[in-house]
């Protein structure tokens, strides 16, 4: 196999609790879900070092997680590189995991390209490249703890979302720093949401959706609060922010209801109607 194609899926943090710190990082407890917005990645074998070409965004090679993933994969498994083309669709700086998705997608793609099947080693590699990357290599719906690398799969449920993405991104480092400066404390909603999802009580799980970083993101970018309040006005099953922002989402019972909410929106945010997708081995 000389060429592979990978869908690198976005994620939503249905919940995000800040539960402490360790080794200079904030520790989280979160329910994460893969959704059907993805960057398309094409990898072709090449001798020597990997190269990358990105369409739809300007990302310097030295800051590109996909290229870093390819180089780390070659070092870890002693294989050649790849010509990598990334077609970006996931918004940057939205908390939807685009950077980690690309890293995970390249790891999965390189595994297929070079017939590497050691998933344990690939998960370790993903962990070194980004807090969300292990989940995005796994996919589906999971409870993620630690820095995001400790995964417990949850039952899959088909959920529908209207996602609003403000034009101004929120940087993760700034959101966590502001969380600390504001003296905010962590919640305990993730365990409740996970329990309801385990029991198949999706409506009750949605009522637990929430994000400890939301006040910090609002302080950094007022458009986050404006988008949140619009979604709240639609009376969805649940509403929250993903990651450190800036994207916010509302959960609905059907695609039709999410599209109805989208049709009424007159603001400046980008809008997406998305649904959860199950785990796909290798994220093909």
Keywords for this entry:
284 residues; alpha+beta; Ribosomal Protein S5, domain 2; Alpha-Beta Plaits; 2 domains; seven-stranded mixed beta sheet; four-stranded antiparallel beta sheet; 10 helices; 35% helix; globular
Plain-language structure description:
With 284 residues, this protein is an alpha+beta fold. The chain has 2 domains: 3-154, Ribosomal Protein S5, domain 2 (2-Layer Sandwich); 160-275, Alpha-Beta Plaits (2-Layer Sandwich). It has 10 helices and 11 strands. The chain has helices spanning 65-77, 98-113, 119-127, 133-138, 172-181, 189-198, 202-207, 214-220, 222-233, 255-264, and strands at 3-22, 25-46, 51-55, 81-87, 141-146, 150-153, 160-165, 210-211, 238-241, 248-252, 270-275. Strands 1, 2, 3, 4, 5, 6 and 8 form a 7-stranded mixed beta sheet that branches. Strands 9-10-7-11 form a 4-stranded antiparallel beta sheet. α1 runs parallel beside α2 (98-113), α5 crosses α8 (214-220) and α8 crosses α9 (222-233). The protein is globular, with a radius of gyration of 18 Å. It starts with a strand and ends in a 9-residue tail after the last strand.
